[in-house]
Amino acid sequence: MNKISASVTSIESVDSVSIVSFDAAGQPMRMMSLELDGMLAAGDSVTLGVKASSIALAKVLEGEFSISNRLECAVESLTEGQLLCSVKLRFGKALLESVITRESAERLHLQVGDTVTALIKASDVSILETIR
User: Fold this and answer.
1) Which terminus of the chain has a lower count of CB atoms within 10 Å, N or C?
2) Domains of the chain: total
3) Entry pTM
4) Domain containing 12: what range?
């Protein structure tokens, strides 16, 4: 599980659905939650969790699309298997992992040192810990 330190900037709730906005290493992030317990407030520090398989990568990002979380990262390492490729990414102080198909890594011509955009749907972000 990838871990990202962030602070809550705002919470919007309607009925049982909440959209929580964060600042993570100076970049905005958002999370969609159906089970927010009401114990979270703007200004709280949190550790966010994202599965490695939930992080897509882009090298040249153009146009508009619905994915809320777009994190600029540097490729630190690549480990290619027969089917999959593990890509280690530096995002601020965090080291993240994205698992993509080997074919996708080859199509993107990924190399150590490349700048990529990590794409994460708001529904794929969770709060692992609230730091009080």
Assistant:
1) C
2) 1
3) 0.91
4) 2-131
